Amino acid sequence: MEGKKIAIIASECQPFFASGGLGDVVGSLPKRILKAANDKKEEKNEVIVILPLYSKIAKEYRNKLVYVTQHVVTLAWRKQYCGIFKYIDKGVTYYFLDNEYYFKRSAYYGYFDDGERFAFFSKAAIDTLLFLDIVPDIIHVHDWQTGLVPVYLRTNYFGDIRLMNVKTIFTIHNIEYQGKYSFDDDIIEDVFGIDSVNAYLLEYNGCLNIMKAAMECANFVSTVSPTYANEIQTPQYAHGLDYEIRRVVSEGKLRGILNGIDKNFYSPSKDNALFEKYDRKSIEKRNVNKVKLQEMLNLPVDENIPMIGMVTRLVSHKGLEMVKKAFEELMKEKVQVVVLGTGDAQYEGFFKDMENQYGSKLRAIIAFNQDLSRKIYSASDLFLMPSVSEPCGLSQMIASRYGSVPIVRRTGGLADSICDFTLPGGNGYTFDNIDHNEMLNVIKRALNDFENKETWRKHIEKVMSVDFGWTASAKKYLQMYEEILEK
Questions:
Q1: Sheet architecture: strand order including 46-52
Q2: 71: domain range?
Q3: In CATH, what number is assigned to the domain containing residue 236?
Q4: What is the pTM (predicted TM-score) of this model?
Q5: How far is CA 438 from the centre of its chain?
Q6: Structural domains of the chain, count
Q7: Residues 132/105, Cβ–Cβ less than 8 Å
Q8: CA distance linking residue 330 with residue 315, whole number of Å
Q9: Residue 266 within any structural domain of the chain
Q10: What is the pLDDT of residues 191-205, one digit of tens each?
């Protein structure tokens, strides 16, 4: 691909701010796209990333931001200040859009006016590109929070000659979260700034749906694993959008590309969060992390007790109903379980109740704590992800990188990244059905294998040797960019 200008617009990005996999992907992908193009000795691409300037940005980066300029963004009847700050790292230019009314909040999402907040951000991102005289060849947006970007390009900016040749890609990280609102003409015009003539773009199943509109207006739609791209064409996984997904497929617009992880960001040989650093050649040092975590959490200290880790959002699609049904039977085994996460009150309460009942075998930490998550990855022998649905999943990749052997249900990206040890190239334990007994049987098989130290060391060496980096995925993104520019 000849040197092109690519603008990535998203609501999260590591290391500035992230609440999950979206932030990890947006943090890694731009740099890997640049590197992949350079490795192919192509003309150098230019990659910029546009982000909201949340008040929660990590302090070490806030102090590095350089003020560029400011402008006024008009959205419907509102005129809002938009400050532009700049940061450059490893060839990627990041622009942070400042508006304290929308982004000086204690959390990234979850507010009654999220629709308005991210409508402003989407409109401001386009206005900022034009204000800075930056016309990209491709605009790549992520999830519903930036889904209005391709919609605005098709509506409000349709006659702008500067943007006539810009191609757009909309990536779905989780189809469950769609940006849905009750149908109301006032919302379409007063909040989203889209006239009634184009209201049909947002209408779907009797409500307004930003994700649906983004899929209709974008040139390509991608999602974060090949299996998930197939799954979301069915009612079971599409959360009501299966008709729209099938329409996208019929137009040849859907792609599925498995995410990767940043191997430098997630590296047990460099990670300062660990009690003891190690790599594949010094696996014996992992046990230090296990013993220290047992001490920290006041669990019985014994490196010969297999430890199962779970770092997850405590919500139903993570397979927690299966865990609940199997838990008492699991507690009969020689095992320790460490759970870290926040989510639905019923699951938070369940794990705390189980901790009270099985205090020597379970610790449930109801928190979002990146430091502790790294400690769990490095200390646990097994990592459980029994998801009902999992678009990609990065935790199974991170766990493997740290030598925690994954146990997963074969769905979405879990099916694309983890293969059972009984098969050629096996790198974990898998099961197929949403069945707590099937899950429990696989866990017991893994616990039995743990008792054979020679076998277990080979398992650790195997999972740590799998390359879950971005090299292959970045090349596929470049291929998608080339394809969209040729159309």
A1: 66-75, 78-89, 92-98, 46-52, 5-9, 138-142, 167-172, 220-223, 254-256
A2: 5-260+471-486
A3: 3.40.50.2000
A4: 0.92
A5: 27
A6: 2
A7: no
A8: 20
A9: no
A10: 999 998 998 999 998
